[in-house]
Structure formats: C-alpha cells, structure tokens
Amino acid sequence: MSPESTGQNKHNLTVYRRGFRTWRGNRPFWAGLFTMLGGAPIAYFPYADLQLGNMTLAMSTTAGAGSLIIGVLLITLGLTMWFHSIVRVFAGVAAILLALISIPVANIGGFVIGFLFALIGGALSISWAPGEPQADAQDPEAAPLPLDKQQPESEYAEGALHGATVPPQQPGDHDTASGYGTASGYDGGTHRAG
Questions:
Q1: Which are the contacts of 6, defined by CB distance < 8 A and separation ≥ 6?
Q2: Distances from the Cα of 91 to the Cα of 29, 33, 40, 77, 109, angstroms
Q3: Which pLDDT tens digit goes with each residue over 58-104?
Q4: How far apart are the C-alpha atoms of 42 and 134, rounded to whole Å?
Q5: How close are the terminal C-alpha atoms of the chain, in Å?
C-alpha cells in the first residue's frame, strides 16, 4: 500500500449491518417480529397490575394461564419463522388461529394490540416467498448478448445492424402494416402477391 491510500475502511457496525440485512432478507423477518410483538401483550396483560395514583387495577382473569400459553406459543412461532422458515406457512396459519383464539381467552386479544400484531405477522408469514437467486455474471446463458452478437429478427434488422436502411413503403404496395390490401378494401388479414 502506498502512504497516500487509506486502505480498507470498514467499520464493524457496517459489516454487522450488512450481515444482518442479508440474514433478514433470507427469511420472513417482519412476519416473525410482528408475531412475537403480538404474543408479548397477550401474555403480559393478564398478569399486569396498572397503578392509577393510589389505586391498583388488577387485570388478571381466570384465563391467565390460557393467555400465557397463547403468548408463549406466538413468541415461539415468531422465532420459528426466523430460524426455520421452511415451515412458514404452518407457522403463519397457527399464528392466525392463536390470534383469533386470544380474543375470548386473553382480554380481547391483549386489548386488540396483540391480536392485530399476531394477525398481521401470520398473514405476512403465509404470503412470504423466498427470492429467486440472482444469475451469476459469469454464466453465459444468463448474461444478455451484446447487440452485435444477437440474432436479427428479419432481413431488415440485419441490414440495420450493418448500416442499411429499411426501404420506405409506397402507397400502392399490397403488403402494408395495417393489414389492408389494395384500395378496394380489407383483404381478410392475408397479404396478396402483387
């Protein structure tokens, strides 16, 4: 390296960010995140106590264990979407069903917040599909040919590649682009020889 060059200036944060972006793009990341965000309030609210001044409002119900199970299952399904994306459709359907079950069981689905997050996460998981791999630049079949190497579509196109021009059509020509033959009218879509 010369004294003028700065060398490779890669920061660890940039490297980690690019690695995370690649990891995130290979799986239904947002589906898993929304599903886990939906499971957290469903599991938390039945065990939470809300303080209003000197008054404590307990939101625990008889179905506290049911909401805890639903919340933990939703968080587990979100992690499954991240780390085992091959079962994303099953995980998405299960997340939607658990979100619907949480409405009567877990304080109206975690006060509708958890229900909506889990429903959106399940729908995103079902609809996610892995991307197509990009074609390798060294693959000769995948790379488009340059214009001078492509096959011409007609003899006029071949002439245009070599500098020739297309001859203009005359008003009396029978072979017109609009499908009309002579001045007598429409020729049924076929061209007549002159």
A1: none
A2: 13, 13, 17, 6, 18
A3: 766 666 788 889 999 999 999 999 999 899 999 999 999 999 999 98
A4: 41
A5: 75
What is the 8-class DSSP label of residue 182? Answer: S
> CA neighbours within 13 Å on the CB side: how many for 111?
8
Question: Do 187 and 181 meet the contact criterion of CB atoms below 8 Å apart?
Answer: yes
* 3-state class (DSSP) for residue 51: strand
| Structure-token pair, residue 77 | 């399904």
Question: Is 98 within 8 Å of 119 (Cβ atoms)?
Answer: no
Sketch the domain layout of the chain as residue ranges: 31-127
Which residues, 6+ apart, have CB-to-CB distance to 84 below 8 Å? none
- Helix, strand or coil, per DSSP, at residue 32: helix
Contact 194, 176 (CB under 8 A): no
Residue 121 and residue 37 in contact, taking contact as beta carbons nearer than 8 Å: yes
- 52: helix, strand or coil: strand
DSSP symbol at 12: H
Query: Tell me: the pLDDT tens digits for 113-152?
Result: 999 999 999 999 999 988 877 765 565 555 565 656 555 5
